[in-house]
């Protein structure tokens, strides 16, 4: 089964080797057909602490690294 890849914005880089990424999705409301924005935050593994707040990053599913971290940051050229 292929691994999911999501795009988002780094909102926190305070943890060591971890960044928090906000992923936004847009969809049409079922009744009103107005575009609705919903976001969710994911913790992602960043081995080299290279990404800072405000960076656009791609994250990919991986095996669980800790209790609530099962995503890893990949660079844009690997997508």
TrEMBL record:
InterPro entries: Ribosomal_uS17, Ribosomal_uS17_bact/chlr. One of its GO terms (cellular component) is ribosome. Keywords: Ribonucleoprotein, Ribosomal protein, RNA-binding, rRNA-binding. Pfam families: Ribosomal_S17. Belongs to the universal ribosomal protein uS17 family. One of the primary rRNA binding proteins, it binds specifically to the 5'-end of 16S ribosomal RNA. Part of the 30S ribosomal subunit. This is Small ribosomal subunit protein uS17. The lineage of its organism: Bacteria, Pseudomonadati, Pseudomonadota, Alphaproteobacteria, Hyphomicrobiales.
